[in-house]
Amino acid sequence: MSDVNPESAQTSATLLEGPRVRQTTFGQDVWRRFRRNRLAVAGAMVVLLLVACALLARILAPYDPLLVQLEKQFSPPSAAHPFGTDVYGRDIFSRVLFGARISLLIGLIPSAISMLIGTIVGVLAGFQGGWLDTLLMRLSDVVMAFPSIILAMVVTYTLGASLFTLFIALSVVGWAGAARVVRAQTLSLKERDFVTAARAIGVTRSGTMFRHIVPNCLAPIIVLLTLGIPSAIMAEAGLSFLGVGAQPPTPSWGLMVNEAQQYVFSAPWASILPGVAILITVLAFNFVGDGLRDALDPYLKGKL
Amino acid sequence: MLRYLLRRLLQAIPVIIGTTFLTFILLEVVPGDPIAMMMKEHIDPDVVERVRKEMHLDDPWPQRYVRYMAGVLRGDFGESYKTRRDVGELLANAFPATLALTASALLVAWGIGIPAGIIAATRPYSPSDHAMTVFALLGVSVPVFWLGLLFQLIFGWKLGWLPISGFKGVQYLIMPAIVLGASSAAVIARLTRSSLLEVMGSDYIRTARAKGLRNLIVLVRHALKNSLLPVVTVMAIQVAELLSGAVITESVFGIPGVGRVSVKAIQQRDFPLLMGSVIMAVVLVVVGNLIADISYAYLDPRIRYE
Predict the structure, then answer these.
(1) CA dist B263 → A279, B99, B181, B249, B279 (Å)
(2) What would you measure as the largest C-alpha separation in chain A, in angstroms?
(3) What's A36-65+91-300's CATH class?
(4) SS3 A4
């Protein structure tokens, strides 16, 4: 956790004082380890670039993403249309830029919600134990028995296909795995002395759970959150590709691939390029997630 | 072993009940009248009333759930709202294609993932190890449908090696199996690598080396079996992931499987058809989990006594 300064142990005076230790905070430590991972840093830069694209889409995009120009149908990539145009003559580059907004939002919000649910469920189950633990864990078994796309499709059937439905569907799908991890962590934390001490000085049960146990679960939660983002983006793309996610004319990357797939042999750019955007985004988040996992807690490697 | 098996089987029952129950409730709250959907324009109120009675649509939902599940246990999944065909029969027709697809994808995943992981672990931090890491990260990040389209474009269209879509023989399965298995192969490769590296650092491997055994023997006889234990556990998760991917892969390659049926059921708002395909998917996942647990217990005797 901290570096020993090799010069300090040289004189007997300093020996008596003990080695001088350079203090580093946990955050500095994590940052130092993260920075050393080149792939993770590259991933983080791509993520920042994507965020910039999403925020500045209106300025950066050369065309309105919904502007139909039928006379320009399926123009191959050119200076005027860097990624070409689609079946309605819409500029694919502009649509990809606006699509970054959808993908980032769908990546962040449902993952954050499901982590929140997962943390609460996990800490309650682990700390309270008993019938509540059994009930919550059986519930997470049930959710985990669904292939995620199928459960999201069931929610879609109920609420109708839309982007908003996807937010709910993906929040419902993701919490169970997080609950498992947090519960396991809680079970080992609640036997530790600092928890006993907190209980002894009269901290309430909920105070113990949320002030003492949850902060100690943050490392795996952050890692699960960053790794949850790419899987949510992928799920949105998949569901929109199937036609049960975002609806036309939304510039969702998955939907763009769907709309262009039947023309893949005559106009490959229209389906392949939005797919590349998905690939790069998911890859970047996976790099960051991997790097964060190793930086936050090297012992988690291979476990998450 | 038998007691362990029995306990695991019993544990699967509440999961099946829970999943069907959850699906039933979720689908139950949907607005809209199935009768109106079936009959389209010619709606005679008397007929509607009679059909509602026949289908017990006016009963409270707990009663309908119990009746539905009782039917399922007898193999009766009801009738499709849209085509009025037997759902059990529709699913039975679609099932072989999905099973063939997921099984061959699993084969691809293991066939590529395990050797790749072993090669990477035997030479850690070498160029081949780094190449494996990069391919594995690409593999887990690539959207299934995009890879499918790319394969169709390159191997189906440009090179003309493989049929582009449909399901009329083994050669139709090659592309879909690789496309669907790619991400699982990546996961398995990474896991095999890390787990093998961990085992290779353990004391009994050092003992084996100290006896003067050759590297290859140590690897095959001593290290591999133990390092594949976590890989077996991951199989359980893989089944659910593969089925999710299969829904998309079937759609890309025009394979008439359960995934296609379920997408169609959603688009046509066909409750019995969707309910049936969800049950089928969940049962497959539960069976996959069971197989993984049983093989894990078989490979690692410690599990049985827990």
Answers:
(1) 24, 17, 21, 12, 14
(2) 86
(3) mainly alpha
(4) strand
CB-based contact, B196 to chain A, within 8 Å: no
Per-residue pLDDT of A254-285, as tens digits, reads: 999 998 888 888 888 888 999 999 999 999 99
In a domain, B277, yes or no: no
Does A249 sit behind a cis peptide bond, omega within 30 degrees of 0 on the bond before it? yes
Question: Which segment, A27-36, B228-237, B272-281, is predicted with the most confidence on average?
Answer: B272-281
CA atoms of B56 and B207, how far apart (whole Å) = 70
pLDDT exceeds 70 at position A13: no
Whether A134 contacts B258, CB under 8 Å = no
Which residue among B15, B241, B269 sits closest to A142, beta carbon to beta carbon? Answer: B15
Domain assignment present for B222: yes
Interface of A with B in 234-293 (CB under 8 A): 234, 237-238, 241-244, 254, 257-258, 261, 264-265, 268, 271-272, 275-276, 278-279, 282-283, 286-287, 290
For residue B177, the enclosing domain spans 95-267
How many Å from the N-terminal Cα to the C-terminal Cα in chain B? 11
Contact between chains at A302 and B198 (C-beta distance less than 8 A):
yes
Question: Residue ranges per domain, chain A?
Answer: 36-65+91-300
Q: Give the span between the Cα atoms of A235 and B187, in whole angstroms.
A: 17
Q: Shortest Cα distance from A208 to chain B (angstroms)?
A: 31
The CA distance from A139 to B17, in Å, is 11
Closest-approach residue (CA) in chain A for B259: A150
Q: Which residue has the tokens 């130092």?
A: A32
**Cα–Cα dist B254/A19, whole Å:** 69
Could you tell me which chain B residue has the CA closest to the CA of A146? B282
B22: closest CA of chain A, how far (Å): 8
**How large is the ipTM?**
0.84
Domain count of the fold of chain B: 1
Any A CB within 8 A of B131 CB: no
CATH number reported for the structural domain that contains residue B227 in this entry: 1.10.3720.10
Q: List CB contacts of B282: < 8 A, sequence separation 6 or more.
A: A145, A146, A150, B15, B16, B19, B20, B23
Query: Does B264 contact chain A (CB < 8 Å)?
Result: no
